[in-house]
Amino acid sequence: MNKMSNSISNGHGGRIFLIGFMGSGKSYWGRKWAAEYYYDFYDLDEVIESEQQQTIANLFEQKGEDWFRKTESEALRKFAEKDNCIIACGGGTACFNANIDWMNAQGKTVYLMADPQYIFDRVMDEQEKRPLIKNLNPAELLFFIEQKLKERESFYKKACVVLPVEELSESATPDFIINTE
Ligand code: S3P
Q: Could you report the average pLDDT of every consecutive run of 10 residues in the chain (181 residues)?
């Protein structure tokens, strides 16, 4: 199979936006599925870091969250020009500036749904690079995840496809890649 024969025919240029909480595996699965199906892969945080020549942690610290959300939304909108690609969004991307509606109009959105404990286990060793959780102790971290997830779920659930992460497997690529309508 090659990129052309597998291009998505949903009228949205074959753009797939992976959304969901930090630690839900957006970058991991996105990179893997893109490689399997010859799509281009982009990690929105990495796009911002490379444009700004700064880490996300530093950008948050120096310019603040409002600046970051504006910059993130601008970086996201540039994907209107790209075809046949998987974009791993940041954990908050879907929840600001009507980004979820924009993504739903521009491509296929896929929510990687994970529960708080799953997320906790995956982010606890990587807190340093994630400004929102950087200074939290384990109890605070779990509480933060539970609260934020509740707050964000209504945005995430606007996705076209909801994939529980516990059901993902290394050997089977989900239907939304193959069956593109
Ligand atoms: C954020 C998640 C991060 C990054 C930034 C803010 C969030 O992305 O965009 O730290 O608001 O949840 P990951 O989900 O890739 O960690």
A: 42 87 98 94 98 96 97 98 96 98 97 98 94 95 98 98 94 76 49
- pLDDT score recorded for residue 172: 86
Q: How far is the CA of 5 from the centre of ligand 1 (A)?
A: 33
**From the CB of 47, is ligand 1 less than 6 Å away?**
no
pTM of the model as a whole: 0.92
The whole-angstrom separation of Cα 1 and Cα 173 is 14
Q: For ligand 1, is residue 30 a contact (CB within 6 Å)?
A: no
Question: Are 165 and 99 spatial neighbours (Cβ–Cβ below 8 Å)?
Answer: no
Domain parsing of the chain, residue ranges: 19-162
CATH 2.60.40.1120 fits 19-162, yes or no: no
- 45 burial class (0-12, 13-18, 19+ CB within 10 angstroms)? buried
Ligand 1 centroid from CA 92, angstroms: 6
Tell me if 132 CB under 6 Å of ligand 1: yes
Q: How far is the CA of 110 from the centre of ligand 1 (A)?
A: 16
